[in-house]
Every structure is written in C-alpha cells, then in structure tokens.
C-alpha cells in the first residue's frame, strides 16, 4: 500500500485483511525492490487459471459471480477500534492497494475530465470519504483481459511470474495482457450468501460499507470477469507506460538545445574573437612599455596551476563525481536500450548500485592522477577517502531516514540484512576497485602543465560584483537547470506520485545536454575569473558548474508545495532527506564535469601562448 501524501509504504497485511488458506508466502526480492519498499506476498483471492472455454459465448452473458473471500455472512471479519482507526487513517491519506497478477500490476480505469478518454492509474483506492464518513472498498471486480491467439508468445516480462498463474496462462495457449480492478464498497447487510458455498450477491444499488471508529464488521468479496483482447504480449505494459504529453518532452529537448546553442555562441565569441586576439597579441614582439601594460588572464600564468586548498578532499570529490557520472551514463544507456524494463521491479536501482560499485575503478584512477598533479604525496589515503566520502554521506542520510521509517513500521524501512548486503558491496567490491584504479593512476603519473608555477603567489585584485562566488553560482546554475527542469518534473512525479517513468531516450538526450551545458558554463565563468586576475579557479569551477543543484533543490521545494499534499512532519523529513541525497549527488556529478571542462580549456589556452 502506498500514498503520495504520507510517502510511507506499508505491507498489504499491515491491515487485518483476509489471508490465504495456504499461508503467507513472500516473494524473493532483489536489492532494488527492497530499497523501494516493495513487499510482495500472496493474497487470498482465488482465480481460475484459465478463461471460459472455446465454446461460443451466449447472447446475454451472465454477470460474474460474487465470491466471499474468507468468512461468511454469519461470521464476518471484525475490526476492533484500533484496527478501524488504522484503516480510517489510511483512507484519509488516500492509500492505494497494489495487486499483481501474472506480473501485471492492477490498474483502475476512469474517464479523463479534460479529454473524455480512458485513463489508468496504478492500484485501487483503499476507500473514500463521503460527508465526513469513511468507507472501505471491500468488493473488487477483477477484469482480466486475455489474448487467446497469442499462443507463440515466448517473451517474458523479466520479473517473477507468480507461480501457477503464469504457467497456466502460457501452457494453455493464451496470455494475460491486462489486469483491471473496479473497487466498490458494499455494506455487510447488503451481501447475501448462497447456501452451502462462498458465492454471494448484492443489489446494484447498495449502501457502502462504513468504517466506524468504535469497531467494524464487514466482508471482503470479489468477482472475476475474463475479457478477450487482441493486445499482444509485447504491448501488455503500454497502459502503464503511456504518457499523453510526449510533446512536452520534445519541447524540453528543443528548450535544452536552445540553451546549448546560446552557450556555444558565447564560447565561440570568447575563443574566436577574444582568445585568438589575446594570444596573437601576447605572442607578438612587445616593447617593455607594452609588457608593463599587460592585463587579463596572461598575468596569472605563474599561479593558474597553483594547487588549491585541501587538495586531498578536492581530488576525492572529483573522483566521486566521475564515478557517479559513469554510473548514470551506463545505467541510462542500458535503460534506453530496453534492458531495464519496469516490469522487472527493482532492476533499475539494482543495476545502478552494481554499476556504481564497478565504476569505483574510474573514481580511484581519476582522483589519484589529479592528486599527484596537485603535488600530493599521500595518494593511498586519497584513494581511501575517495572510496568512503560519497558513500558515507549517503549512508548517513539513509540510516537516519531508515530509523524514521522503522519508527513508523513502514515497509520502506530497509532490513538489517539488506544494509549488511550494501555494506558488503561497498567493502568487498567498490573499495577494492577504487584501490585498483588508484594504483593504475599512480603508475600513469600526474598530468603535465605547460607553465611552471611561481614560488610566491600573486596578489589578487578586488573583483567586480558579478564574480562574487554566490552571484557566480546563481548565474551559472540557471542555464543548465533550464535545460533539464521539464524532464525533472516527470522524474519527481515517478518518485513521489507512484508513476512509471520509461522515456529513457528523452532522458539520455537531456543528460547529454546537461553535461555539455555544465562544461560550457564552467569554461565561461572560469575565463571571466582569470580575466579578473583571480587564479583560484579550482574549487570555483566545481561550485559554479554544480550551481544547478541549488535550482534543483529550489524546484523540489516548489514541487512539494504545488503538486504534493504532504502535511505530516515525518513525511516532510523523508521528502527533504531524499531530496538532499539527490541534490548532493547532482552537485558532485555536475561539479566534476565542470572542473574537467575548465581544466582542459585552461591547459589549452596557456599552452598556446609564449611565456618568457
């Protein structure tokens, strides 16, 4: 059960529902499913493994039979005042129940107010509020769509097939292609049980089942309707992945390209008009008087490669950013190629974690080479810092949020065994690979610079207002954020509103545009800084190119107050905790990209001038 209001998922049997007569069997789940808070267990609904036979359907089909789930009219299910109050709270917070059949999540169909077309949402509402009274949806009409002609469908979703249901559907020559649920609320007094079995009936116009704070007696019932469909197996997930506003994504791409072309124009003007003129003037034969009148970026040539403060921390941050960049790039490419289908629950997150661990070799290599370039001598401790810096920050945030989830008995709380597995991946896979990459980086040696660094640092003149670090962050962050904010909306909706995101082709293009724009804006800001004779560009390049992370945080706050209805303090703590982790990751990645873009630019321009 999930709610976009509380953001606290709960297990299905956290409420007193009818259990299967065969007992409870929890599905073995992968790492990503557990981290998402999924807890898949068998429900008590019994559905025949095949639709009606091949005989022609009658002219007027009989209505689906109603079945009582676990009790009967004389012995209904009883919720005491504590259970009833728990159900009332869940209904107030608009919890959805998620059932799965043949690896297909149930969907609720309704008409769109704007277009009048059929729209689907995942799961079904636990209940509803009417005139300050709470009513529970205790009857489910399950509509199962099957394709009888898809007998050669050998494809699979890649996830669990949930036992006999999948075996029956494929062995008997048909496939289940859609699973709809139509919930309704039926009062106990309206349900009539057939003599000698668990079949039942109730009138079309019936009173709903109210949940009373003093205790509730009710029955859970269901009916099953098989509907023939021509939807092929390969398209069975289309209703979950349909996004009616694909044009908005194209608008996002066009908007992002405009940003990139704008930055490219500025860079072209700087490189072609300004830099070429400056380099030509600096390389020309100058008189002593002209040399004394020199100003701009050439004057700081003896200090531009002076190591920054805290070189070990700086190298670890850059190495972590490279590792995150490689992880995001590889994961998005795999998802774009269709290898990480949403039907494989948790596959995206599991793959991302494993790729992050593997890319530790890249983090160790780049951080060690950079540290040696900065004239550091303790490259082994730098490798260890690279291995623990980002994971420890993320682990601290995650552990705090996990304690909050434990306190609320939410299924989103990560079990101790899973925490131990994550620590094992870090200790036995990620950290050794970082050390291997660091060794290779140390063997390769430091980068070479075209200019020697002076022994005495040059005095930095007073800077103009727009080169103030805070102003630079605000100016530099707005353009990369403008390239991604539309796609960010859909990503936040997938995270916080229980929706699917599967347009990874668009995401890949936006990701490339983000990387290009961060590199370009970093070059522009560093060039202006050097023209102001400020050579402390190392940390500034990271902070300014990562400035879009500030706008991501501000947009997350805007999204919270305009799209979500979170009111509880615990839910706000969870929201801002996860947002902090996301913003920190975004900043480290874009900061590393901006640094390397500025570093390559500076090496090129200073290698093109003659220095006496």
UniProtKB/TrEMBL annotation:
Gene Ontology CC terms: Golgi apparatus; membrane
InterPro entries: EMP70
Protein's GO biological process: protein localization to membrane
Transmembrane stretches, start-end: 250-272, 313-341, 353-372, 384-407, 419-442, 463-496, 502-530, 537-561, 573-602
Transmembrane helix keyword on record: yes
Coiled coil region boundaries: none
Family to which the UniProt record says this protein belongs: Belongs to the nonaspanin (TM9SF) (TC 9.A.2) family.
Protein name: Transmembrane 9 superfamily member
Organism encoding this protein: Petrolisthes manimaculis
């Amino acid at each position: 059960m999930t709610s976009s209001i509380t953001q606290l998922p709960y297990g299905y049997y956290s409420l007193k529902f009818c259990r299967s007569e065969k007992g409870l069997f929890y599905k073995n789940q992968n790492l990503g499913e557990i981290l998402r808070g999924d807890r898949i267990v068998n429900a008590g609904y019994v559905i025949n493994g095949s639709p009606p036979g091949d005989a022609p359907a009658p002219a007027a089909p009989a209505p689906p039979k109603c079945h009582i789930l676990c009790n009967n009219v004389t012995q209904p299910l009883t919720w005491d005042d504590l259970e009833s109050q728990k159900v009332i709270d869940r209904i107030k917070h608009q919890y959805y129940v998620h059932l799965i059949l043949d690896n297909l999540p149930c969907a609720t169909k309704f008409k769109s107010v704007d277009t009048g077309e059929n729209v689907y949402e995942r799961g079904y509402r636990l209940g509803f509020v009417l005139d300050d009274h709470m009513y529970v949806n205790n009857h489910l009409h399950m509509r199962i769509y099957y394709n009888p002609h898809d007998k050669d469908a050998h494809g699979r979703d890649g996830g669990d097939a949930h036992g006999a249901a999948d075996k029956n559907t494929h062995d008997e020559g048909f496939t289940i292609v859609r699973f709809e649920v139509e919930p309704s609320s039926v009062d106990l007094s309206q349900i009539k049980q057939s003599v000698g079995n668990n079949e039942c009936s109730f009138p079309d116009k019936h009173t709903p089942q109210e949940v009373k704070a003093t205790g509730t007696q009710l029955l859970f019932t269901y009916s099953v309707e098989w509907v023939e469909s021509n939807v092929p197996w390969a398209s069975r997930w289309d209703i979950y992945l349909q996004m009616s506003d694909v044009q908005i994504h194209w608008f996002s791409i066009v908007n992002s390209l405009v940003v990139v072309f704008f930055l490219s124009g500025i860079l072209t003007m700087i490189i072609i008009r300004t830099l070429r003129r400056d380099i030509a003037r600096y390389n020309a034969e100058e008189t002593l008087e002209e040399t004394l009148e020199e100003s701009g970026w050439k004057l700081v040539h003896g200090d531009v490669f002076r190591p920054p403060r805290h070189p070990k921390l700086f190298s670890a941050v850059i190495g972590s950013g490279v590792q995150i960049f490689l992880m995001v790039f590889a994961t998005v490419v795999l998802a774009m190629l269709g290898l990480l289908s949403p039907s494989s629950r948790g596959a995206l997150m599991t793959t991302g974690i494993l790729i992050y661990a593997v890319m530790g070799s890249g983090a160790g290599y780049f951080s060690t080479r950079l540290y040696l370039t900065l004239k550091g001598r303790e490259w082994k401790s730098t490798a260890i810092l690279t291995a623990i810096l980002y994971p420890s920050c993320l682990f601290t945030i995650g552990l705090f949020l996990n304690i909050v989830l434990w306190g609320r008995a939410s299924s989103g709380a990560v079990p101790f065994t899973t925490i131990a597995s994550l620590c094992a991946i870090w200790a036995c896979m990620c950290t050794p690979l970082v050390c291997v990459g660091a060794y290779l980086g140390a063997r390769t040696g430091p980068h070479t610079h075209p200019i020697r660094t002076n022994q005495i640092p040059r005095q930095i003149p007073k800077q103009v207002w727009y080169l103030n670090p805070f102003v630079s962050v605000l100016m530099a962050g707005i353009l990369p954020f403008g390239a991604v904010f539309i796609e960010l909306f859909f990503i936040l909706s997938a995270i916080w509103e229980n929706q699917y995101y599967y347009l990874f082709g668009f995401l890949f293009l936006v990701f490339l545009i983000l990387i290009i724009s961060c590199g370009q804006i970093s070059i522009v800001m560093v060039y202006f800084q050097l023209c102001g004779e400020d050579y402390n560009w190392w940390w500034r390049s990271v902070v300014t190119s990562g400035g879009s992370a500030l706008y991501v945080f501000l947009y997350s706050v805007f999204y919270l107050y305009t799209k979500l209805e979170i009111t509880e303090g615990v839910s706000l703590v969870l929201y801002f905790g996860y947002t902090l982790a996301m913003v920190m990751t975004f900043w480290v990645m874009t900061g590393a990209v901006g640094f390397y873009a500025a570093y390559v630019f500076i090496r090129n321009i200073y290698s093109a001038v003659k220095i006496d």
